[in-house]
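Q: Hi! First time doing this. I have a protein sequence and I read that you can turn it into a structure. Is that right? Here it is:
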Amino acid sequence: MKSEIIIHNSVSLDGSLTGFMPDMGLHYKIAGDYKPDAHLIGADTIIKGNEMFGEGIPDEVPSDFEQPQRNEELPWWVITDSHGRLKGMLHTCRRFEYCRDVIILVSESTPQDYLSHLKEREYRYITAGKDKVDLKVAVSKLVELFHIIKILTDTGRALGNQLIKLEMVNEISLLVHPLIVGENCYPMFSDVNGILNLKLKKSESFENGCVWNVYSL
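A: Yes, that's right. Below is the predicted 3D structure, encoded as structure tokens:
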């Protein structure tokens, strides 16, 4: 069975991912309507999220060392972290009630102490790639081991652009906001090489001025 990967992001008219406050309610409603089996997230996003919205990293408690028993219809959080940067931080993800549990993607170069850290806390992890995570191999293993087919990523430029370069993306969903960031623009697709021709599948406008465009590759 083949995976389906969707990139979903909120952007400005000039394609910026940052420099403005997106309509988060609408953003996550659209993401939820896709009903993904998993959200694919980069370690940077988890770190930045804790910095922006957290009040420090809470201490671990005994329940953080056990796999949560939640509704199997909830999506997994699949996080790339080959360098072990999230050591001591993953329980902030596991505690999120709308997350079934966390699966970590690591590589052969991932520090052994980080792997021990994961094992002690019963985190599932997949090893794919030598120096960094091989996303093609990792996604194939997600399908094989966890029956994860539909994967949505909405966490920024680096991971999304890498998936595009690897020709792994089936659909791009853009919630375009009616504003221009200008000189502080952080363009979403600046790491994509060459021209990529897409097909418009859907376009829907909202009362707040946002337009939701969906493209197939």
